[in-house]
Amino acid sequence: MTTTDTSTGPVTGGAVTGAGTTPAPSGVENLPFSRALNAGLRRALAESDRVLLLGEDIGPLGGVFRVTEGLQAEFGPRRVIDTPLAESGIVGTAIGLAMAGFRPVCEIQFDGFVFPAFDQITSQLAKITYRHEGALQMPVVIRIPYGGHIGAVEHHQESPEAYFTHTPGLRVVSPSTPNDAYWMIQDAIASPDPVIFLEPKSRYWPKGEVDTTARALPLHASRIVRRGTDVTLVGHGAMVTTLLQAAALAESEGTSCEVVDLRSLSPVDYGPILDSVRRTGRMVYAQEAPGFTSLGSEISATVMERAFYALEAPVLRVSGFDTPFPPAKLEGKYLPDADRILEAVDRALAY
Amino acid sequence: MTPTEDSVPTHTSTPADSAVVRILAADGTLTPSDAAEPYLALVEALTDAELEGFYRDMVLIRAFDRQATNLQRQGQLALWPPSLGQEAAQVGSARAARPQDHIFPSYREHVVARIRGVDPIDIIRVMRGLTHGGWDPTDPRNGNTHIYTLVLGSQTLHATGLAMGLVFDGRCGTGDPERDEAVIVYYGDGASSQGDVHEAMVFAASFQTPEVFFLQNNQWAISVPVATQSRSPLHKRGAGYGMPSIPVDGNDVIASWAVTKVALDEARAGQGPRAIEALTYRMGAHTTSDDPTKYRTSEEERSWARRDPIERMHAFLRGRGASDAFFADVEAEAEAVADDARIRTTQLGTIPVDTMFDNVYSEAHPLVDQQRQWFAEYEASFGEDS
Fold first, then answer.
1. pTM
2. Does the beta carbon of B352 lie under 8 angstroms from any beta carbon of chain A?
């Protein structure tokens, strides 16, 4: 399958090279998300020779987003495997490799190209433990760069999370910060269950602090990233940044917003969300994906079931439209921005 | 392209083709084809006990298969995919595998599973609706035999992945045939149209996996003839992926054994993947939900019945002097196997509702746990009436 030119974003590839960039296993580093992932993968590869990476162009090129840069040079072509160009083949053989005792980490090059592997993920990978009555575990990670904001062409900007959260047997997570990228990829690899690991591609380049000595949270915990008292804003991945922008704007207008980063999309950690809603009485959920039968639909319904008497307004959803992801020149109108979120905040406050 | 009716043969090639490896003619006489030449020394080394064992395997599993078909008709099983007619391809290939080899069956390989040690009642459990799996492939008693999957061709990728793992771990090509491992994966002519089979062959060739792709061309994908799956004989496809690809008379158990043994030996020794097309015929329905009279002729069925794998081997063994006592013993054992299947099926009982929530994940998952608890309380709310 074709991919976008890698010049679609400020790729850090030229500035840093392979093994020399490994953060020491102690201390705090300031890293872009993609380098944090690279460091997390390197640490997992170094800690167990059963960990394998496989995908298209992940070897000498380091992947189109350079997430695996330098890893093949360091660990060799049997640990970091450039596969034939076949997504079902990547996931299907990863299943067999897991049966042989490996812990494969697959890279799907872009969100829209995961669908040729959809059968192997949903009909096979997700069900193998159930079908084997627990006799086999499936410690397979599927990394998928996803989401908009990079001005790419069709099939390169989608948010397919609901297909996977709808499938029993899969775990689905999405880090939004470099620190989470570093730890969550290691936790996903350590999980005995299959994990769909969604990487918000517009977040690959901004830097953030990575504490390589201490894991902040378990893989499936959600987190309150900003405190507030009037409205709870919930989202994941790149949308967390947009929610924080909206909260800052709201603050200047006198409204105090709390922001919750889901981190785990399946299972959802409802504790911090419900605690927050019980304090604020209002909630707005925001996502890039189309709204109909989406993660936002599920979470808003659950919050209304569990926190009905705490709510001063119905949970409101802000999402991409129920259209195909539009041509890139329109993505700024399609994707929820801070203004669309604030419009929903205003509606919630008006009840 | 939609083939016109008169241009559609029911099969792409028949066991009469000279390129097909065949040891026994349909009448049971030792009549090797030209293509069988490289295998004759192996065949000559087969002992009477081994040859009689092939026959016994086929007869026993046919009795089991007939019993299972009857059990389905009597409402004891949800579904049954009969293996009637395909016993030679399955017995020959399964007997060619070494204990350390790994087996990825499709959903009709009842003979293969039994030979590898899987208790046939475990297959019954799947078709009775008691489990999606029913046996543990990692339990040594099951001979590294994986469970059935109903999605066509999916298992060819799993087999290839496992075979890649064997390569990465140095578990083949060591020069020690007692230790080297290989994988054999079964699929059918219908599955050969699936993209996963293509991708599996691409990966297998790229990574030179120790693997045998064992295609049983039984001529029909439910009601669709093999000509709709492929306009060229399926055994020619292997060459396109860069692997040797051998057509064999799948109703000849000796030929099926010899071809598979050589292919597995070569794969185990590190020479890469091989493809085998076993030309055979599904004499029964695709499954018990199917009615073959709607899509194929009785003349075709009769022509294949004349190539029956068991009768062929029976005639061959008779010609070699096998005793009446041997045949009587096999018949008695077959009857016992069938009786055992019937008795144990009716004793299977049911499964606790709670198992629905088991093993969805390996680690605790709050959503599943909450639903398990809710359902238990809901059921309990009916008290004694539940």
1. 0.93
2. no
